[in-house]
Amino acid sequence: MKYPSFNVNYARRTALSGAIGSVMEWYDFAIFVYLAPVISSVFFPSKDSFGSLTATYAIFAFGFISRPFGAIVYGHVGDCMGRKPVLILSVAMMGGATFCVGLLPTFDQLGPTAVIALIVLRIFQGFSVGGEFSGSTAFIVELSPPKRRGFFGSWIVSGSGIGFLIGSASAVLTAYLLGPEELADWGWRIPFLAGGVIAIIAYYFRSGIDEKRPDRAIADEKGSPLLAAFQDHWLDMLRVGGLALTVNAGFYLMFVYAITFLTTNVHLSPTSVMGINTLCLVAIALFPLCFSVLSDKIGRKPILLFGTISILLLSWPLFWLLDHQNLYFVFLGLFGFAVIFSMIFSVNPAVMAEILPHEIRISTLSVAYNLTLTLFGGTAPLVALFLVTWTESTFSPVYYLMGLAVISLLAIFSIPETGGKKLRD
C-alpha cells in the first residue's frame, strides 16, 4: 500500500479530531464518579447510603462490561469500512447516551424503570468507548509523519486527562454554585447535558476530516479481521494486553482506589485529597506530550522500559509516601506515580498501532486493549480492597501492581523497536 505524503498541519487536525473523543470519554467518567453520591440518592433512594452508592458503582461497572462487545463491532467496522465511520459512530453514541442520562426521570418519578434506563445508557456508553481508543489511535498514527507518530499519538492521552479535568471541574462547580438541595433536585443533570455540547464539537471535527486514503477494506480470506487476529496475530494481542496492563491497573489503583484509601485509612479531608488528585491529573494531561517527543528521538522501548521498571522499583516507596497525613508527602507520592504513568501512556498509542498490521489493526487493538482494561483496569479498586482485607496489609495492592509490571516487562522485551519505522501493512 502506498502511503500519501504526510502534512504536519493535516496531522495536527487529525490528532485533534481523535483526541477530542478521549475528552468526551473521560469527561463522562469524571462526572459520573464525582456525582456518584448524588446519583445514588436520586436513583436508589434509601436510608442505607452505602448500599445506594454500591448500587451506583455497580451500574458504573456496566460501562466496562460492555466495552469488549463494542470493541468487536467497531473493530470489524474500522478494518472493513475505514477508520472515519468508527470515529463518528463512537462519539455520536457516547455523547448521545451521556446527554440522555441528563434527561432521565428519577426513581421517584418512574420507579425501577428509571434504573433500567440508566443501566441501558451505561451499556451504550461503554459499547461506544470500546471503539474509541482503538479507532482514534489507528487513525492518528496512520496519518502522522513517521518521525512524529509518538507525539501525535500522545494527544489521545492528553485528551483523556483534559476530559477528566473538565468533567471534574464541571461537577464541582455545579455543586458549589447550586448547593446540596438544588444539586439533588435538578442540578446533577447539567454536567450530563453539557456532555452533548462536547459531542457536537467532536462530531464537527471528525466529520470534516478526510482519511485521504485509498480504499483499504480488508481482503482477508477468513472474512473477519477479528478471526484473523485470533488465528494469526494472537501474540500481537498478548503484547497489546501486556502494554496496557500495568499502567491502566496502576491508574485505577492510584487515582481511584487511593482516593478512598487516603480519606478512610489516612483520614485526610476529601477536599485536600481531591485537590492533590487534580494537580496530578494535570501532570498526566501534559507530561505525555513531553515524553512522546523524546520517544520520537530515542525510540519507544527505552521509554517503556524505564517507566515499567520504575513501577517495579518505586511503587513501594511512593505508596509509603501516601500513607502519611503530611500533604506534601502525599502529593509527592501521587505525583511520582503520575510522572511514571505518563511515560508509558505517552508511547502506548503509537507503539500499539505500530506493532500491528493494518488489515486487522483496529480489531486486534480494540479487543486486546478493552479486555485488559475490563479485567484488570476496572477491577483494580475492587482487587485492592479484597487484598487489603485478605492480607490485612494496606500495602498489598502495591505488590499486585509490581507483579503486573513483571508481565508488562515481558511484553515490552518481546516487541521490536518501532519508532520512526514504516507501519506494518
UniProtKB/TrEMBL annotation:
<feature type="transmembrane region" description="Helical">
    <location>
        <begin position="151"/>
        <end position="176"/>
    </location>
</feature>
<dbReference type="InterPro" id="IPR051084">
    <property type="entry name" value="H+-coupled_symporters"/>
</dbReference>
<dbReference type="InterPro" id="IPR005828">
    <property type="entry name" value="MFS_sugar_transport-like"/>
</dbReference>
<feature type="transmembrane region" description="Helical">
    <location>
        <begin position="240"/>
        <end position="262"/>
    </location>
</feature>
<feature type="transmembrane region" description="Helical">
    <location>
        <begin position="26"/>
        <end position="44"/>
    </location>
</feature>
<keyword id="KW-0812">Transmembrane</keyword>
<feature type="transmembrane region" description="Helical">
    <location>
        <begin position="188"/>
        <end position="205"/>
    </location>
</feature>
<feature type="transmembrane region" description="Helical">
    <location>
        <begin position="50"/>
        <end position="74"/>
    </location>
</feature>
<protein>
    <submittedName>
        <fullName>MFS transporter</fullName>
    </submittedName>
</protein>
<dbReference type="Pfam" id="PF00083">
    <property type="entry name" value="Sugar_tr"/>
</dbReference>
<feature type="transmembrane region" description="Helical">
    <location>
        <begin position="328"/>
        <end position="347"/>
    </location>
</feature>
<dbReference type="InterPro" id="IPR011701">
    <property type="entry name" value="MFS"/>
</dbReference>
<feature type="transmembrane region" description="Helical">
    <location>
        <begin position="86"/>
        <end position="104"/>
    </location>
</feature>
<dbReference type="InterPro" id="IPR036259">
    <property type="entry name" value="MFS_trans_sf"/>
</dbReference>
<keyword id="KW-1133">Transmembrane helix</keyword>
<keyword id="KW-0769">Symport</keyword>
<keyword id="KW-1003">Cell membrane</keyword>
<comment type="similarity">
    <text>Belongs to the major facilitator superfamily. Metabolite:H+ Symporter (MHS) family (TC 2.A.1.6) family.</text>
</comment>
<feature type="transmembrane region" description="Helical">
    <location>
        <begin position="303"/>
        <end position="322"/>
    </location>
</feature>
<feature type="transmembrane region" description="Helical">
    <location>
        <begin position="397"/>
        <end position="415"/>
    </location>
</feature>
<feature type="transmembrane region" description="Helical">
    <location>
        <begin position="367"/>
        <end position="391"/>
    </location>
</feature>
<dbReference type="Pfam" id="PF07690">
    <property type="entry name" value="MFS_1"/>
</dbReference>
<keyword id="KW-0813">Transport</keyword>
<dbReference type="InterPro" id="IPR005829">
    <property type="entry name" value="Sugar_transporter_CS"/>
</dbReference>
<dbReference type="InterPro" id="IPR020846">
    <property type="entry name" value="MFS_dom"/>
</dbReference>
<keyword id="KW-0472">Membrane</keyword>
<feature type="domain" description="Major facilitator superfamily (MFS) profile">
    <location>
        <begin position="14"/>
        <end position="420"/>
    </location>
</feature>
<feature type="transmembrane region" description="Helical">
    <location>
        <begin position="274"/>
        <end position="294"/>
    </location>
</feature>
